[in-house]
Amino acid sequence: MLTYSEVIVLRDKLASGEIGLESAQAQYWKDFKEGQKSWHTKDWKERRSEMIKDKCEICSSKDTLTLQHRSHPKKYSEYLSDVTRAYAEEYRNTNPVIDKYEFTTYVLKKYDYVPIPFCPNCKWSNPYERVRKIPKYRCLGCRHEFDNPVYKSVDELISIFYENEEALEVRDKCFVSKEWRNKNNLSNIRYWLQRDRARNKDAETIGKEAFLLYLNDSIQYLSFDDTITACKKCAFNFDINKMELCPKCNQYYKGLQYPTCIQCLPEEKRKAALESIEFGKDWREMHRELGID
Ligand SMILES: [Zn+2]
Ligand SMILES: [Zn+2]
Ligand SMILES: [Zn+2]
């Protein structure tokens, strides 16, 4: 695993083009597993001991001090999909028109078409199916009653889509992705086609941009910049309970998302908060007694 300064050198070499993406990734991920603890390395331990303060920055206790990160880095795959999405948007804006034949080929190759019934009288799909009455179907759009619904071919649907993307007939998600098994309509499929194309066209650029963001994040994490020295109790509350000491009273803990602890809330709000906590306790108690818990 690379040390802090080695990651910085790697990032700079990749950014300047001195090394390529493949080589940078190979160096960074050599004997690296996602989730592996960087604090097992010697470099980490040494730099940590320089950063850690001699007392808890929250409550001033000296009991088992740890260095807590306030934020955690994103995964490379998360950056990759963020950047890919941005490039797909860009591609969509600059290439709004797709050849109809190419689109049809893409649809047939990647999706299973599951035809849905249409009313023979209007453009509504999925007529109401009656169990006992004859004729069997009743259109929810025009109230026409009929025995034989109409089905449309993929070509027909695509032609309608090319004439009017908003047409009623092309709204149903009747295409099932062969790869992901999720349902799509033609408009969804066009998005995935554009995303695929953007990704293939700019694969190297997208990968590099995402990897640079990822490296910067890792550098930020390894720098200990956004850390706080915490005692055992405060660290536990911070990490597990998402709580920190209330800045107003410095006595009770509060959720990270709240400005103060419950005790320090204005009278009205405190009452409401305490009542909802009591209610939660009663609720859990009842569940325990009933054996639902
Ligand atoms: Zn503390
Ligand atoms: Zn109808
Ligand atoms: Zn307080």
Which labels suit this protein?
293 residues; mainly alpha; 3 domains; 3-stranded antiparallel β-sheet; 10 strands; binds zinc ion
Structure description:
The structure is a single chain. The model has no long low-confidence stretch (mean pLDDT 89). The protein folds into 3 domains: 4-77 and 206-239, no CATH class; 78-204, no CATH class; 243-290, no CATH class. The chain is mainly alpha-helical and 293 residues long. A 3-stranded antiparallel sheet has the order 2-6-7. The chain is 48% helix and 10% strand. The longest helix has 24 residues, at 267-290. It is flat and about 80 Å long. The chain binds zinc ion (3 copies). One zinc ion (ZN) binds next to loops.
What is the gyration radius calculated from CA atoms? Answer: 29 Å
Percent of residues in beta strands: 5-15%
Unreliable stretches, pLDDT < 50, 5 or more residues? none
Largest sheet: 3 strands, antiparallel
Provide the residue-averaged pLDDT.
89
Shape: flat
Structural class: mainly alpha
Number of helices: 10
Give the termini separation: 44 Å
Order of neighbouring strands in the sheet with most strands: 2-6-7
Count of domain modules: 3
Number of strands: 10
Bound molecules: zinc ion
